[in-house]
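name: query_chain
kind: protein
chains: 1
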Amino acid sequence: MSSIRLYILSALADEGQMHGHQLRQLAEKEHVDEWTDVTVGALYGAIRRMHGEGLIDEVRVEREGSYPERQVWGITAAGRETLATLRIEGLREIVMKPDPFDLAVSRMDRERIDELPTTLAARIVDLKALLVENETHTDRIAHYLSPIELSVMKHKAERLRGEIAWHERLAHELPEIIAAEKSREDT
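structure:
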């Protein structure tokens, strides 16, 4: 699922034909980089790729005053089909990427296993700091967000709370885990 494709195609479908700078201005106005994984700077490259794939097409070229010529883009029939698919995928797909921590902790150097409680405590502090940062950020931009966008920001906070809870449970279980790992080492 490509968030940037979903953003560009839905903007063209909902707002009408636009040139790249207008898409960028819309993204900045909507603060999409604040609550999605869409980066405003990546729009132009995505536009080129989507044009090459036939999802959007150059409708005309405009020139205003001394500004350079700008291609105005419109969504194609193939783009509308792709948009419909992306919208469904975005609503249905669950994205939970593997955390490198899981592999690292399961492959911990047994000679350094006694360092794990300190490492885990520091990770919990970092996760809590991320949560505070997220909540502060949400409060700061809340007036820019629609109710659904605000809900999305709260979703991120809830995911962080879940991570914190899991890490705290692991910290609680760590003495038993370390003892089991050390006894496994002795056999």
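note: The beta strands are 18-19, 56-62, 70-75.
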